[in-house]
Amino acid sequence: MRIDIVTLFPEFFTSPLQTSLLGKAIANQIAEVHLTNPRDFTTDKHHRVDDEPYGGGVGMLMKPDPIFAAVESLPILPKREIIYLTPQGEPMKQEMFKDLVNYDQLVLICGSYEGVDERVCEHLVTREVSLGDFVLTCGEIPALALINGVVRLRPGTVGKEDSLKFESFEDGLLDYPQYTRPPVFRGWEVPEVLRSGNHKLIAEWRKEQQILRTKERRPDLCDFS
Domain 2-151 classified CATH 3.40.1280.10? Predict the structure, then answer.
């Protein structure tokens, strides 16, 4: 999988792309990440990437021409998605990551200022994606979240791939509570069923806990009627 990040701040990604499982996955060529700066495609002497919005308003908008030029400079792989990170987009969910992991190429456009010229969304972008119902200073943060969520699903990223089958949002449920040693910590004990060795009872307990936790914390995820 090839991931192209179109960003005014390529240095933002230096440490995260070299750290933990994501860094190992990139080092092992499970995914390759390339950074492209739209400022490198400006044609004026000041290398401006933003301008005032028509009709007035607060703030500046990213100009369309450097963004189009940056994306058009990239190679085109057979199955490609061009994603603009914006609060107005589709919220990130696990099902989205499962879909995107099947693409050959993801092009991520990171917005800044008050966003991008609408023609970028209308004629270049194929999907708009949001990290959530809030506003951040830049699109680089949601871009990192998306990269992490997708690359961890690539074969070879996570050591025990079976662990991907038993986590939050699989089957529409949150994860069950988990414990490790010591069995008693400050008087708080690990549930006896988890120490019983009875795998059938443990599986039943975990499923019950998933349902209870989802009902309490995220009842919107399932129909419990």
Answer: yes
